[in-house]
Write the structure tokens for this entry.
Amino acid sequence: MAKTNAKGRSKGVPRHVRLEHSTMDTPAYRSLSPNARSVLMEVMKRYNGFNNGDVGLGCREAGEAIGRSPNTAALAFKELQAKGFIKPREIGHFNIKNRLATTWTLACKAPVLCATS
């Protein structure tokens, strides 16, 4: 365990995505496609402990991150929504003046415990 500074914050601990065995053993997680699992990891990677509901990730960026097309990423987002892992807070749109990605909410109190159904 890392030492803490005077304010109680740890130093030198790298950020990580934690996915517990209890989550990975759920029927919901086990039924996800590999693309959906990869997109879920990307959404969880952007969660910093305070920004749930404001995790921005669009189909183009998700597709690039997982090495797939934006259409494949869009299908993965739909699958994650259908199985209850994520919910859109604000739907993104793309036009000349405004390029906003959808902001996502991880559908659980702590991303570690997502979708225990």
Observations:
- The chain has one domain: 21-109.
- The domain at 21-109 is CATH 1.10.10.10 (Arc Repressor Mutant, subunit A).
- Strands lie at 55-56, 86-90, 93-94, 99-100, 103-106.
- The helical segments are 21-24, 27-30, 34-46, 59-66, 70-82.
